[in-house]
Design a protein that fits this description.
Blueprint (H helix, E strand, L loop, with lengths): L3 E6 L4 E8 L2 E2 L3 E4 L11 H23 L8 E7 L3 H18 L3 E5 H7 L12 E6 L4 E8 L2 E7 L5 H11 L7 H8 L22 H17 L3 H4 L1 H27 L3 E5 L6 H14 L2 E3 L10 H13 L19
Parallel strand pairs: 1-5, 5-6, 7-10, 10-11
Antiparallel strand pairs: 1-2, 2-3, 2-4, 7-8, 8-9
Helix pairs in contact: 1-2, 3-10, 4-5, 4-6, 5-8, 8-9
Length: 336
């Protein structure tokens, strides 16, 4: 069978739907939520309400643009977790209703595994095994990918994620949410060596970003005491230095993981995978260390249903379906 699957993503503040046919993603419809900007971060209750308002629209648009009728669907897929429980519930409930009404199988997808499998939407595709650095607002992990459905976490953050560190630092400087991309934009005109920040030393392959957030807060306070216009005068250099420091922290662990595993096929995934400095740092390793590097398209870095669709395709082939009693899990881990 060449399955046609409808996939739904609703883990945080993006409502998305995608149709995949015979392993080929046909579209990737995304409705973003702007309501959170004035609060400086995602408000869970508002996110779940927005999903309820948008999910019918994005699903209908995905089906229409793919030219697929409901009776042609062979399965319905959804994000089970991790994510905001209220947001996940909207997608899970909608998917269950469709699957039950159409009499087709239900496929639950791990959001973080889907980020990794986004590399199999388009060419070039990495061969197994490969290392994947997953970096987002909620996660920072080093994953050995043995197969489509077999992944092993070998390092992860002990506290905050790198994406949160970017956004919180941006908020300290008065940037609107999400501020991480703005730091990237301003950093491109700055000197990454202008300022230095303390390095959090964690043994093994784990990460820690809580310390750098505190250090950055006091860095701004101390310098503004000396020069009230400090941020305005040195905005680009501040952003460039902070970005270089954060990216340097994950690159250090990634290099160590390559050495320890002997795997030099390396990929990145998640929202922070769109960061230009991280992409450049990874590409530099191609000439410096001979790595085989895989970087996803921008549209597959942030939360999207296309990655849920490709993950669902491989689960369909393996006949790994979910029951109608399946429940969302806010803290679902890779491998669960």
């Amino acid at each position: 069978m060449q399955p046609i699957i409808l996939a739904i993503e609703s883990s945080c503040d993006e409502t998305s739907a995608s149709v995949i046919q015979a392993g080929k993603v046909l579209n990737n419809v995304i409705a973003s939520q702007t309501v959170h900007q004035k609060y400086g971060g995602v408000v869970p209750e508002l996110a779940s309400r927005a999903h309820q308002q948008q999910i019918h629209k994005v699903v209908n648009e995905a089906l229409a643009s793919a030219g697929i009728q409901l009776h042609q669907l062979n399965a319905i897929a959804f994000t089970r977790g991790p994510g905001l429980l209220g947001s996940l519930l909207v997608g899970v409930s909608f998917a269950k209703g469709m699957a039950l009404g159409l009499g087709v199988p239900l496929i639950d997808v791990n959001h973080m595994e889907a980020h990794v499998l986004a590399h199999f939407i388009d060419d070039p595709k990495p061969a197994f095994p490969f290392l994947c650095l997953t970096v987002s607002g909620g996660h920072t992990q080093l994953v050995v990918v043995h197969d489509y459905l077999h992944m092993e976490v070998i390092g992860e953050t002990r506290d905050d994620a790198i994406g949160e560190a970017f956004d919180k630092a941006a908020k300290m400087m008065g940037f609107p949410y999400p501020g991480g991309p703005l730091i990237d934009r301003y950093a491109q005109q700055g000197n990454p060596k202008a300022f230095t920040f303390p390095h959090t030393s964690i043994p093994g392959l784990d990460f820690s970003f809580s310390g750098i957030k505190t250090a950055f807060l006091y860095f701004l306070k101390d310098n503004k005491k000396k020069e009230p216009r400090f941020e305005a005068l040195f905005l680009h250099d501040i952003c460039a230095s902070l970005q270089a420091h954060l990216v340097g922290m994950v690159m250090e662990k990634l290099k160590r993981a390559v050495e320890q595993t002997g795997i030099n096929r390396v990929a990145i995934a998640g929202g922070v995978a769109a960061n230009s400095y991280l992409r450049k740092s990874l590409q530099d390793q191609v000439s410096q260390s001979g790595w085989d590097v895989f970087i996803p398209k921008f549209e597959y870095c942030t939360d999207n249903a296309a990655m849920i669709a490709i993950a669902a395709h491989y689960k369909f082939v393996a006949k790994r379906f979910a029951s109608l009693s399946v429940a969302p899990l806010a803290n679902l881990a890779i491998g669960d």
